[in-house]
Specification:
This is ACT domain-containing protein. It comes from Sphingomonas sanxanigenens DSM 19645 = NX02. By secondary structure, the protein is α+β, with helices and mostly antiparallel strands. The chain has 2 helices and 5 strands; from the N terminus they run E-H-E-E-H-E-E. The model has no long low-confidence stretch (mean pLDDT 91).
C-alpha cells in the first residue's frame, strides 16, 4: 500500500534529517519528500510505496516520540488513517 506521512516539526536544522532517519533505519527509500517552512515550523510530506500497514504505523509512532515533531498524520489510499499530536 502507498502511504503519505504529513508531519509538522520544529523549525530546526535537525528536524528533516531526524525524520528521514526513521525511514533509513528500516531501509526504506521514500518515493517523494517535500518540506516547507510555515508558521514558525516545518511542514514535511513523505510518500512511501509498498509499505504494509504495521510498518507505517510503527514509523508514525516513532515519529511522534521525537521531541522535534509536533504532529503526524498518516494517510493511506487518500484517507487519514492516524492523526495525533505528539
Amino acid at each position: 500500500m502507498n502511504w503519505r506521512f504529513a508531519i509538522e516539526a520544529a523549525e530546526d536544522p535537525q528536524s528533516l534529517p531526524r525524520v528521514l532517519g526513521y525511514f533509513a533505519q528500516r531501509w526504506i527509500v521514500p518515493s517523494g519528500v517535500t518540506m516547507a517552512l510555515r508558521d514558525g515550523g516545518m511542514a514535511i510530506d513523505i510518500a512511501v510505496e509498498a509499505l504494509d500497514e504495521q510498518g507505517a504505523a510503527i514509523i508514525a509512532a516513532k515519529l511522534r516520540e521525537n521531541v522535534l515533531v509536533a504532529h503526524v498524520t498518516l494517510l493511506g489510499g487518500g484517507e487519514a488513517i492516524v492523526a495525533a499530536a505528539a
